[in-house]
Specification:
There is one protein chain. The longest helix has 28 residues. The protein is mostly helical. The chain has one domain.
Length: 209
């Protein structure tokens, strides 16, 4: 990949990462619920999700999802259901001081946080279609494809980790102000509603003709 091409993609990657979406919500939710140090692992799950999406696009499944109405619809509604389920779970979460625990009081493992974030990015056909539309513009078919995809994957990972760490850190700063149950309940319901809205917006997303 030529330097000029990479610089153009690098600029596009920042726009992709900064744009609000389920990943940003997940990062802020993790920062609010678990603090920065523990919630930061969510970002690794989001990056793994991006790499999975890129792999899907690279092997051609992205084209199938974009071209097949049935495949696109199945994946889209899986994504909608998962985001709405996250929203309902956050809405119903108990109003107790923020800590890395789930609804039963058991400690939430870092593996569980990573898996949750990975699913948010993977079950999102909008992300697949977006990558399918953007990535080919920076691929030179006359050169080996694997090195180019590796560079693209590393670039997306870098920008996403920087941006999402900012979202996580910003949200974690609110932890000190969330001491009263009423405050925590408002936070839970706010983020629960945002996840449901994100799912609703995804439900309205239509496959490009």
């Amino acid at each position: 990949m030529e330097l000029s091409t990479w610089l153009a993609f690098f600029a596009a990657s920042w726009a992709i990462s900064i744009s609000p979406g389920p990943g940003a919500l997940a990062s802020m939710s993790a920062g609010l619920n678990h603090g920065f140090k523990y919630g930061y692992v969510t970002i690794f799950g989001l990056v793994l999700g991006i790499w999975t999406q890129l792999l899907i696009v690279g092997v051609g499944l992205g084209a199938l999802i974009a071209a097949s109405s049935a495949a696109f619809t199945v994946v889209k509604w899986l994504g909608v259901a998962y985001l709405v389920w996250l929203g309902i779970a956050q809405w119903r979460a108990p109003a107790r001081p923020m800590m890395a625990c789930n609804d039963t009081g058991e400690r939430v493992t870092q593996r569980a946080l990573i898996l949750k974030a990975w699913m948010i990015n993977v079950i999102n056909p909008k992300g697949t279609v977006f990558l399918l539309a953007v990535v080919p513009q920076f691929i030179n078919l006359s050169q080996p494809l694997l090195p180019q995809y590796l560079i693209i994957g590393a670039t997306l990972a870098f920008t996403d980790m920087v941006v999402m760490s900012g979202y996580t850190a910003l949200a974690s700063k609110v932890l000190g102000a969330l001491k009263e149950p009423a405050h925590i309940r408002v936070m839970n319901r706010t983020f629960g509603s945002l996840f449901i809205v994100a799912g609703s917006l995804l439900a309205l997303f239509k496959r490009a003709q």
